[in-house]
UniProtKB/TrEMBL annotation:
Keyword Cell membrane: yes
Source species, domain of life: Bacteria
Keyword tags: Cell membrane, Membrane, Transmembrane, Transmembrane helix, Transport
Gene3D superfamilies per record: 1.10.3730.20
Gene encoding the protein: sugE
A GO molecular-function descriptor: transmembrane transporter activity
Subcellular localization(s) per the UniProt record: Cell membrane
Name of the protein this chain belongs to: Guanidinium exporter
Species name: Rhizobium meliloti (Ensifer meliloti)
Membrane-crossing segments per the record: 33-50, 57-78, 84-103
Gene Ontology terms describing biological process: xenobiotic detoxification by transmembrane export across the plasma membrane
One Gene Ontology term, aspect cellular component: plasma membrane
Length: 104
């Protein structure tokens, strides 16, 4: 259950990171409320997950999920570059997340 909670926290981290783009510097009310709500819920779920998961592992997985998801959505939504080097680095992050899951 802790890993599922951590996954949800990571997905919410993606949500708030992408939401930052839509807040327009926190000048748009609805995107700002959704982004701040995602931030709070993401951190709360991370806190719940670290009750039973090692802190270092949980934090690294949480930020990894957020990083990979944000980069992928940046490519899809904002036409950010999808170079071989960027995709290779995403692969390394995914490998790190998988490794931490296997040993944690």
């Amino acid at each position: 259950m802790a890993w599922f909670t951590l996954l949800l926290a990571g997905i919410l981290e993606i949500g708030w990171a992408i939401g930052l783009k839509y807040t327009d510097g926190f000048t748009r009310l609805t995107p700002t409320v959704l982004t701040v709500g995602s931030m709070i819920l993401s951190v709360v779920l991370l806190g719940i997950a670290v009750r039973s998961l090692p802190l270092g592992t949980a934090y690294a997985v949480w930020t990894g999920i957020g990083t990979v998801g944000t980069v992928i959505l940046g490519i899809i939504l904002f036409a950010e570059p999808a170079t071989a080097m960027r995709l290779g680095c995403i692969g390394l992050i995914v490998a790190g997340i998988a490794g931490l899951k296997l040993v944690g």
